Amino acid sequence: MNETKHGHEEDPATALRQTSLRVTKQRVAVLEAVRVHPHADTETVIRSVRETLPAVSHQAVYDSLHTLTEVGLVRCIQPSGSVARYERRIGDNHHHLVCRSCGLIVDVDCTVGQAPCLTPSHDAGFVIEQAEVTFWGLCPDCAVSGAAMVGDDHRSAV
Amino acid sequence: MNETKHGHEEDPATALRQTSLRVTKQRVAVLEAVRVHPHADTETVIRSVRETLPAVSHQAVYDSLHTLTEVGLVRCIQPSGSVARYERRIGDNHHHLVCRSCGLIVDVDCTVGQAPCLTPSHDAGFVIEQAEVTFWGLCPDCAVSGAAMVGDDHRSAV
DNA sequence: CTGCTTCTTTTGAATCAGTCAAGGAAAGCG
DNA sequence: CGCTTTCCTTGACTGATTCAAAAGAAGCAG
Fold this sequence. Notes:
By secondary structure, the first copy, chain A, is α+β, with helices and mostly antiparallel strands. In chain A, 34% of the residues lie in helices and 18% in strands. Chain A has 6 helices and 6 strands, in the order ααβααββββαβα. Chain A has helices at residues 12-18, 25-36, 42-52, 58-70, 115-118, 140-145; strands spanning 40-41, 75-77, 85-87, 95-99, 105-108, 127-138. A 3-stranded antiparallel beta sheet of chain A has the order 1-3-2. In chain A, strands 5-4-6 form a 3-stranded mixed beta sheet. In chain A, strand 4 (95-99) and strand 5 (105-108) form a beta hairpin. In chain A, helix 2 packs across helix 3. The two termini of chain A are 28 Å apart. Chains A and B meet through strand 2, strand 4 and strand 6 of A and strand 4 and strand 6 of B. Chain A binds a DNA duplex through helix 4.
């Protein structure tokens, strides 16, 4: 549905062309899937892509995700205990809130912004490129329903 | 084996007893291994443990690490692209510097300390328990030797 | 210190995410 | 339209981690 009316801005095909990658329907579908499902894991992307392209191989999706990550069209995050997840929002260095109970991931902007998070006390001689911040806690739903029973052993994400 | 001179402080057996876990030689060895090899992955722990206990099963190590993590005697970290790594936790919420090239992990204290890193702009209703900060970059060695040849699989993110 | 109960460890197989490799298909170019 | 290069499909494979059943130790009572 709602096809390209303007076909710019975040249009998958355009984005791909700009990185001089070949525009294949698989890649377009993967990009679209990542946009539709923020923080989706690979399996979710595969399922989503197969809604429009039933015959895609999982390998094509893995490969597309890697390629797209390399050229910077998607970003890959892997909170502890979770499989790889991808997101379309890139460029800004936003961070993530992860629910310990259900695995829900939500974006947060780095208010305090730049300085504090980007300057560790002593850098041990490292050349620092990026600071990645992950906030762990409970999402609203889990905080309510699971407040009492949380705390044992669910590493089950999603 | 520098045996108990004072037998307190960080003595594995004592620590275990205090958490009402059974004191087994496997667990003691695992705790010791984690202390000796900061940020060791499971395989390293297994090898280290087998130096003194040649017959330990890998399963015992996996299980010990999980149990010890649960009771808070060790902490598990998993930077993107890395397998699980463990460290003897100190209760302080220190952070990590990870080398993109060789994977080296180094501890850093959270200078600015408390506030900034622990308060995202808007918490989306989450109950936040912890902020985890990972600094990505190049360790001194890789920054020098690899400065030119690095860049195979990572363009500087943000 | 002897036996019992419960928690741990061993053993060995299984699962799961992700990867490798070779041949067939399709994008982009002229 | 046909070629070249890049991409996708197929199917097997790896490596980290987990499951499950049975044997083995820790801690406790007697």
